[in-house]
Amino acid sequence: RRQFELVASRTQMRISLQRYLQTREQEEGEFLKRILGDVLASSEHYQAILLYAPDGSRVMDVLQQGSSLVSNEEMSFPQEGISLFFTDLNENLPAVWISGSLYLQGEAIGSLHILSLLNDLVDVMKDFYCRDVGGRTSLVLFGREGQLQILQSHCDKHGDSLWLDSKDVRALLDSAELLRQIPETPVQINDHWVMVLPLDDRLGYVWVD
After folding, report:
1. Phi and psi dihedrals of 12, rounded to 5?
2. Rounded to an integer, what distance in angstroms lies between the CA atom of residue 201 and that of residue 33?
């Protein structure tokens, strides 16, 4: 969310987008492209920056080398606020789409979509990879359609699989009994103790067992 707000606050980008949508002049488009290129280069985590018009058509995009797979991504135009959802890149790199509307002088002029890697979260998980060293940490993330994706670090002793599949995890997260105990106390499920903590911006949960 903070990443989106920092990028969206660039007044010149919003002015250039509005001008380009009004004129479609090549020079204005090239200037806007350079602005987006500077945004992309501002963070090693950014993989793509997309701009959409208010009618939902794509205006422009800039991509990191090797990220051409996102060129066919169709983003829904946010109705309000900022939305986030998880996706997978090549080599199973976890990433998140951060999307929201752009405004200039109170008028909606389009939408901005940022694809950012989740390296920091993955690095934290690597420190808690096994139940025998203080609990195994997994990420339970929501995709665009609300589907669950479970990410966890490799454990030589217990393998790569969570002891519950995504369907069981979804059922547990939806259960009133478990949700009432988030995040105050662990919950016993069969022979496991589980702690579930919500991530910011409704991206998903941290699951520790």
Report:
1. -65, -35
2. 29
209 neighbors 194 (Cβ within 8 angstroms):
yes
Q: What is the spatial distance between Cα 66 and Cα 43, in angstroms, rounded to a whole number?
A: 16
Q: What is the pLDDT of residues 7-35, one digit of tens each?
A: 999 999 999 999 999 999 999 999 999 99
pTM for this prediction:
0.77
DSSP state, residue 76: P
Which residue stretches of the chain have pLDDT < 70? 66-80, 89-92, 128-135, 153-185, 189-192, 201-202
At 152-178, the pLDDT tens digits run 766 666 665 554 556 666 666 666 455
Q: Assess contact for 106 and 176: CB atoms under 8 A.
A: no
Tell me how far CA of residue 41 lies from CA of 26, 63, 90, 131, 147, in angstroms.
22, 10, 20, 38, 31
In the chain, the largest separation of any two C-alpha atoms, in whole Å, equals 65
Spatial CA neighbour of 43 closest among 101, 106, 116, 94: 116
Neighbours of 193 (CB within 10 A): 13
